[in-house]
Amino acid sequence: MKAFTINKYSKNVGLQLAEVPEPEVKDNDVLVEVHAAGVNLLDSKIKTGEFKLILPYKLPLILGHDVAGVITKVGKNIKKFKVGDEVYARTADHRIGTFAEFISIDERDVALKPRNISMEEAASIPLVALTAWQVLVERAQIKKGQEVFIQAGSGGVGTIAIQLAKYLGATVATTASAKSFDLLNDLGADVIIDYKNSDFENRLSNYDVVLNSQDQKTLEKSLKILKSGGKLISISGPPTPDFAKEIKAPWFVKIILSLISSGIRKKAKNKNVDYSFLFMKANGQQLSEITSLIEAKVIKPVIDKIFPFDKTSEALLYVESGHAKGKVVIKIK
């Protein structure tokens, strides 16, 4: 089968189109013929080696975390799915590889594709929607009437997180450039701040939750807008010792993460704010709940561009540019 691979960690070397063996299907796996794959900043960060400390991969490596497609083969223990099912998934860490014609996935990570959206729209959903779910539902446990600040509202995570937070009954503030205001109003954002000419920390106060997806400077500014007892949840770092424990990292990784997160953890503690780092996990059950919300038209996919399979490298470069509104998807079949 054809797949896009990397042979070494690099910022400058692109993806290589290669002929590779079709993946093995274990007893609890389904083999999916890939119709479309979502492209995420995480793919770029893995390509450059930014996450090799916490996600050590063997090279060569097929990139890609999001998939929508059709099951063509099932392992002997599979009960929930059958050949011919249209499904979608965020593949588990260490089993990524959706920039390919086929991928084998553990059935626990798979959900039936929402019936009312296309394969390309489905492929745009899993990673960002599961991130939003795990931040807002699992970690923050958003209640009706709470105030939530979601940074970079027009990005992949932002567009879904705004819709989910509104569904949960929250008041939502976000940041974007003026050209994204119509989109964000349509998604339900209550307060939209133009980051180019206004500082959110001067406009917002006493918020319950912040979803941080930006740099260290923005992370520290976010502390200023939270009430005592508020939650600062970052999906862009720095990772904490708790996260190291969660992934069963070696002792030296725990020490490194403890050092790099000590500053923000101390500042958060002084403000009585709960700081945590979230690295989303594959979860088919949660994705099934998200399917229900998509079919009920509570959440709609937001796609910026669809690239053909042979332009996968260009798709990744476009994601890295930071200009995408919503998601970027590769159409494979």
Structure overview:
This protein has 333 residues and is an alpha/beta fold. 32% of the residues lie in helices and 26% in strands. The protein contains 11 helices and 16 strands. Strands 3, 5, 6, 7, 8, 15 and 16 form a 7-stranded mixed beta sheet that branches. Helix 11 links the parallel strand 15 and strand 16. The longest helix is centred in the C-terminal third of the chain and has 20 residues. The two termini are 13 Å apart. The model has no long low-confidence stretch (mean pLDDT 97).
- Give the helix level as a range of percent: 25-40%
Shape: globular
Largest sheet: 7 strands, mixed
Unreliable residue stretches: none
How do the helices and strands line up, and which of them pair or pack?
Layout: E1 2-6, E2 16-19, E3 29-39, H1 41-48, E4 61-62, E5 66-74, E6 86-90, E7 102-106, E8 110-112, H2 119-123, H3 126-139, E9 147-150, H4 156-167, E10 171-176, H5 181-187, E11 191-194, H6 200-203, E12 207-212, H7 216-223, E13 226-234, H8 241-246, H9 251-270, E14 274-277, H10 284-295, E15 303-308, H11 312-321, E16 327-331
Parallel strand pairs: 9-10, 9-12, 10-11, 12-13, 13-14, 15-16
Antiparallel strand pairs: 1-2, 1-4, 3-5, 3-7, 3-16, 5-6, 6-8
Helix pairs in contact: 3-4
